[in-house]
Design a protein that fits this description.
alpha/beta, six-stranded parallel sheet, binds 3-methylbut-3-enyl trihydrogen diphosphate, binds magnesium ion
Length: about 240
């Protein structure tokens, strides 16, 4: 099927690292490192399929509630990932952005993020976004606060607030809304991911755990999207 419709922006809730490890009688941390390794595989596969934007949910505003031990393991892994991503961005001509409230992350992590974003800013291959300390509600609140400040300063009237203004205040202001959302590991919820941006997105859920979600699984999700759009292409009919 080579005329299948490809999503321009794919968003992924990478879930199931813990259960992947448990099934193999391994510590959860091993699941997280297997999950982190899988990200590059999917970045390359997505780009080869013709996907231009990929956004992945790596750490939510709610994930701080996990044990101190797991949070510190995840932060260490994410820092290593950000540092290693410089080389990957060069190799794949990939621009990397981070969304979420990074002001709550360690100064070292913030420095790694800035370095990576700055290093990759002119690469025009895959537009890859990592959601880190990201929550959809938190992101909307931060945008609303920016608008409230403008009202307070007399720059706009409350009445003049539009959907576009709210969108422009979100961390995703440079990105199109996702066309397809994938969640791995069998959970059927959004868990506070891109609440505003997913308004018209198609959803694909799979029982496969994130570390096992390979190119073949990605192809199934993309095929599902192509078929759905053909069957329910209301916008074109
Ligand atoms: C996803 O895997 C990774 C993060 C949320 C950081 P989980 O750690 O949620 O794995 P499960 O859901 O416990 O299997
Ligand atoms: C969502 O997964 C967050 C990320 C993938 C980063 P969780 O495993 O944290 O979500 P819940 O707790 O099952 O809703
Ligand atoms: Mg989970």
């Amino acid at each position: 099927m080579d005329n299948i419709k490809i999503p321009k922006h794919l968003a992924i809730i990478m879930d199931g690292n813990g259960r992947w490890a448990k099934k193999r009688l391994l510590p959860r941390a091993m699941g997280h490192s297997a999950g982190a390794k899988n990200v590059e595989t999917i970045c390359e596969a997505a780009w080869n399929m013709g996907i231009k934007y990929l956004t992945v949910y790596a750490f939510s505003t709610e994930n701080w509630k996990r044990s101190e031990d797991e949070v510190s393991t995840l932060m260490k892994l994410l820092k290593q990932y950000m540092d290693g991503c410089i080389e990957k961005s060069r190799k794949n001509n990939m621009r990397v952005r981070v969304i979420g409230d990074i002001s709550k992350l360690s100064p070292e992590m913030q420095a790694s993020i800035r370095r990576l974003e700055d290093y990759s800013k002119d690469f025009d291959g895959l537009q890859f976004t990592v959601a880190l300390n990201y929550g959809g509600r938190d992101e909307i609140i931060r945008s609303v606060k920016k608008m409230a400040e403008k009202v307070k300063a007399g720059e706009i009237e409350a009445d003049e607030i539009t959907e576009e203004m709210l969108s422009e205040g979100l961390d995703t202001w440079e990105l199109p809304d996702p066309d397809l959302l994938v969640r791995t590991s069998g959970e059927l919820r959004i868990s506070n991911f891109m609440l505003w941006q997913l308004a018209y997105t198609e959803f694909y859920f799979t029982d496969v755990y994130w570390p096992d979600f390979d190119e073949e699984e990605l192809r199934k999700a993309v095929d599902y999207y192509g078929n759905r759009d053909r069957r329910y292409g209301g916008r074109n009919s």
